[in-house]
Write a structure and sequence with these properties.
By secondary structure, the protein is α+β, with helices and mostly antiparallel strands. It has helices at about 20-30, 60-75, 80-90, 90-100, 110-130, 135-155, 165-170, 180-195, 200-210, 225-240, 245-260, 265-305, 310-315, 320-325, 360-365, 420-425, 440-445, 455-460, and strands at about 10-15, 45-50, 50-60, 340-345, 350-355, 375-380, 380-385, 385-395, 410, 425-430, 450, 465-470, 475-480. An eight-stranded mixed sheet has the order 6-13-12-8-9-10-11-7. Strands 1-3-2-4-5 form a five-stranded antiparallel sheet, sandwiched between helices.
Length: about 475
């Protein structure tokens, strides 16, 4: 296997902050069957460059996985719903494991016991519970398919309905996200405090319950008590006690639309699957954030006991971290990863190739080609609305700090760590993502205009550019 073997192929490319250690459980299942009836990806190429990950999946693999999902849903009614229920049945076990290990003092363990615990942790997330990677294929392929089917239906029936509005309503999530749930719990705590109730213990319990919430593939970040208390103070000051329930509004709007228009079976199937996968996508974010928090805890302890730079350990995959614990890996051989671009190819659940030679030029050979004089971008409407505002491009987590009220966030793909910046923004525009992506779900909960899947927004737009985000039409216009 050589790096050149992966050039000249048609990839879908996603860009995120990420470290190899935290990506490994996800990458493992991408190229292994989650369930025997659902196709998996043949391979995944991960291009790392100082904390930025370009995640490359073959478009033919995305299409293959998507169609295997639809085929199984047609073959057996509620097959995917039952599969989700089976997956979710292990949720209590996952959370029990998380809190037990998160609160465990690793320093009192010897290397052998630490290795045993790490293997159990790694095995559970990668091989027992598993990351439902097929959701990505659905997310990336279904948006175009739903647009096409609705457009065809409207043309056949000669209606004057707005295609983008219909798409936005039909693909809206009808379940509360965990970020919205956490905010509502803060509102309840704030209300208790205004009634003179001592909430000190409840605040600490809240901190532990959501101890993973500020993390990401980029790194684990603690959720400090100070931040929680500041949020509670802000809620009290603004008298923002009303619980947010945008998902309930979404459900009502969708119900009204479905009763008024007799959509065909193919559209209704995709609408139902989108509801399921939006919920599953939100759950798997907690799956990801909890394993990132535990990966970080293990890595921190290994760095301490082996006297190794923690950043170097974050650039290992799980099998390499096992070797470090056993004293079998010279970390000097992998230290270059923190400074130089390198490519990892995942195949059949294993790391098939790690290559630094040629990695710097690799993206230029497989990336998107576009006209840099573009004045208008098109994407999919995740949430309706129209705003004009200055651009703030977010490529790294720390870029979120520059967002101010009224800014238009332009980002490869949003994740939970961008939530506070999104709340300040006027609108969201993404390169990547599909109908069940984080940006789409949060934009609908916060009711902000959002256009996803432009592919090139972060390449074309720059900080300070004035743009019109017309999500009613799925268009971003550059004003100056």
């Amino acid at each position: 296997m050589k790096l050149d073997d992966f050039i000249g192929k048609d990839y879908y490319i996603e860009h995120i902050d990420a470290k190899p250690l935290y990506v490994w459980p996800t990458a493992y299942i991408f190229t292994m069957p989650f369930y025997e009836e659902i196709k998996s990806y043949n391979s995944v190429v991960a291009h790392y460059d100082q904390g930025i990950l370009n995640w490359l999946t073959l478009k033919r693999d995305i299409k293959k996985v998507f169609h295997s999902l639809i085929a199984q849903d047609r073959k057996k009614k509620n097959f995917l719903g039952e599969l989700y229920s089976q997956w979710k049945s292990r949720w209590p076990e996952m959370m029990e494991r998380y809190y037990r290990l998160f609160n465990c003092d690793f320093s009192c363990l010897d290397d052998l016991k630490l290795l045993e615990l790490f293997r159990e942790h790694s095995h559970f997330y990668a091989k027992d519970l598993k990351f439902p990677s097929f959701i990505d294929a659905y997310m990336l392929y279904a948006d175009g398919e739903i647009y096409r089917l609705i457009n065809k239906y409207y043309k056949n029936h000669k209606t004057e309905e707005n295609l983008h509005e219909t798409f936005s309503v039909l693909t809206s999530p009808i379940d509360e996200s965990f970020l919205s749930r956490e905010e509502n719990e803060l509102r309840k705590l704030a209300q208790s405090q205004t009634r003179g109730i001592d909430i000190t213990d409840k605040v600490r319990a809240h901190q532990m319950k959501y101890s993973f919430i500020r993390g990401s593939y980029g790194d684990f970040v603690e959720y400090p008590l100070e931040e929680i208390n500041n949020e509670i103070f802000k809620i009290i000051k603004e008298e923002d006690f009303k619980l947010k329930a945008q998902h309930v509004i979404n459900k009502k709007r969708k119900s009204i639309l479905l009763k008024s228009i007799n959509f065909n079976e193919d559209i209704l199937r995709l609408v139902g699957l989108t509801e399921l996968f939006a919920k599953w996508q939100d759950d798997r974010k907690i799956f990801t954030l909890t394993h990132v928090a535990l990966d970080h805890k293990f890595a921190t302890d290994v760095a301490r006991r082996k006297n190794i730079d923690l950043e170097i350990i974050k650039y290992c995959h799980h099998e390499e971290l096992e070797s470090i614990i056993k004293g079998e890996l010279d970390v000097n051989k992998i230290a270059y990863r923190t400074q130089k671009p390198f490519v990892v190819v995942y195949k059949k659940g294993k790391v098939g190739l790690v290559e630094s030679k040629g990695a710097k030029k690799f993206l230029n050979k497989v990336g998107y080609v576009f006209d840099n004089k573009i004045k208008e971008l098109k994407g999919f409407t995740a949430n309706l609305g129209r705003v004009v505002g200055p651009v703030k491009v977010i490529n790294r987590i720390e870029d979120s700090k520059k967002v101010r009220g009224g800014d238009v966030i332009v980002i490869p793909m949003t994740r939970p760590e961008h939530y506070m910046a999104i709340k300040k923004s006027a609108a969201i525009v993404t390169d990547d993502g599909g109908i069940t992506c984080h940006a789409a779900i949060i934009a609908r909960e916060l009711n902000k205009p959002c256009i996803i899947g432009t592919k090139i927004a972060t390449k074309v737009l720059h900080d300070g550019d004035m743009v019109e985000v017309d999500a009613d039409k799925g268009i971003v216009k550059i004003i100056n």
